Amino acid sequence: MTNRQETQRWHGLVSRQSENLGTLVEQFMKRLLDAGEYRDAGLREAELRATSSDVFGLMLRALVDPTQVGAVERLASRLGRRRARDGIPLDSMLTAIRLDFPILWSGLLSTAGRSEAHVLAAHAEEVWNVVDTFARFAQAAYLTEQDQLIRERQDLQRQQISLLFDAVGQFEVNHVQIARALGVSVSSFYRVVAVPSESAVTLRHNIDKAHFSERVFTHEQGRHLIAFWQIPATSPMVVTPRELALLDKVRAAVAPIARAIADIPLAALAASRMVDQLGPDEERVTDLKASWPMLAKTYLAEIGCDLGQYVLVPLREATERENERLLETMAAYLDTGSLLGTASTIYCHRNTVLNRLHRIEELTGLDITKPADAALAMVALAAQQK
To answer: What's the angle, vertex CA 384, arms to CA 382 and CA 386, rounded to 5?
Structure first.
């Protein structure tokens, strides 16, 4: 048989298979819909059937007309981009495309007579190549489109996070829409932390290397980087060791839990104010329990209530030596909350502690064994230590 005769038989074989296009499509659809990813993705069966018909029709044309290879590549690229946006996993798409080879081959085999078996065998590589070309171009387009989708999603999330923070006190926002863009629940609880700008790089590095179950979102706000993530409603107020790993080697403040997405900006403001109380060399994590005396001092001072003057100035009526001892005793008692604990801390007798507490009350009017007076004294000492 001459090359021309073989080519004619090959073209005839492919032509007869083209008349059987509907059978190829039905075989493909049966096997495709057995794969849960396509069935569960909500794709319309009519669209899948039409796409399958286009793909098989073009592949058959490309088997007899090399000029159709460019059309195969273009169709594969369009399909790859579309399946990325459909949310079909890449492996599932490639598996579906590679179904084309056994279906095409079986169809050609069933159409070929005995005299055409050697013709079919001689063109087996061509059949594989056209399917492989389609798969390669579909995969490349899928990955490119997937990268674009990730960038679009990240841009949308950044826009929605900015909207969440910028809207406070300015205009109403749709918190359900923001939560949907971030892939979180509008009524979930959130951990919110703030770090100064100079710690932002370290925090981002910690986030990137952490194997964290929840997505960590960040937002630059003035001199701070805010980070927040969703937590279970049963989460403790205390930060967990896994969360602390995100804050390794940074100055950070943890706000009280935000109990809805709408509460995140206010929690971020609290965390920012708390982290500002830390010194530039303090690479540690603070929270409201540790920060509240200094916060109280700062905001009371803004309205003219200087508790340092209210509490500490009266102690200066004592001699310098006595003043030092009274301040030492006050700090130890406020830290331990007990006479014995204070005595142990400052290495003196219990009665000495009692005498000094009475002297403090005599000079300042504060009985720091009472919670309200103790709170005022704690804020006053914070003022002195700042």
So the answer is: 70
